[in-house]
From TrEMBL:
It comes from Pseudooceanicola sediminis. Residues 12-78 form the GST N-terminal domain. Signal peptide: none annotated. It comes from the Bacteria. This is Glutathione S-transferase. Keywords: Transferase. The keyword Manganese does not apply. GO terms for molecular function: transferase activity.
Amino acid sequence: MTYDLFIGDRSFSSWSLRGWLMFEQFGLPVKTHLLDLYGDNFARDLAALSPARLVPAMRTPDGDIIGETLAMAEMLAERHPDANMWPNTPSARTMARWMAAEMHAGFVDLRSACPMQLLHQYQEFAVTPAVQRDLDRIALLFKEAQARRVEEGPWLFGRYSIADAFYAPVAARIAGYGLTVDGPVKAYVDTTLNDPAFRRWRALGLTRSYDPVPYALDLPTARWPGPSPLPAKAVEVGTPINQFCPFSGKPVAHLAEVAGQTLGFCNPTCRDKTVNDAEAWPAVMALLQP
């Protein structure tokens, strides 16, 4: 019973991120298909998913097409009650749905001024009064979420929920533009940037390069503010410590040096996503353990 999820470019498609996280964080079976959001064939490829007109879009195991992440969220929660995708208590669950809906339709100024990009952090970004109002609203909602939660944990309602999938792009925008936040919002941004699932999404997105870069601003940049990756680079020669790719199980054909050890991979994407952030991939870290 595997779903098909159709997404846009990982480094820039915030809606695709929240759709993917709903599968990744709750262990739901899915096959992901990347559509080139900025390519000439995007409309043609999306036409096969009619009436969906945006990414992400999902095909259920029954063959139904579903668009819009709110609809996807409710359908997945309904079909997988054991996954506990919403908070358990009524008050927290109500607030989580409210926050997801407001994210889906609101924060227009923040989203317009700060399109999600996971490449680097812009410096000297000028926060307008409208963007600041959105940030203040987010802080208010986070405070209310804290007041209603009864479960322990670092996420909006303690345990990870659908609401967190919706607010991961908010955290990415705050990080990517160096926006000033404090208290629960700052802690939440740090939690998101350190989350292994988010790190896997970003590491895989960085395997693609862009010229020109979408949404680029004429501002200085600094390194991405998340965890510093292990030292790693692609190499042409060496003797890998593994015979088979840690992701596919296929024979190795491409090499990378990670934390002083040579690892083998079946293709350049497996190699490069590891180079981008080896600690995001449990199968890679298992190879590096003594």
